[in-house]
Amino acid sequence: MEMKPISTIHLNLGLEPNGRVQKFFTDTCARYMNKYIPKDTGMLRQNVSKTANSITYESPYAHAQYVGYTGGPVRNYTTPRNRSLLG
Question: What is the chain's percent helix, strand, coil content, to nearest 5?
Answer without folding.
Answer: 45, 10, 50
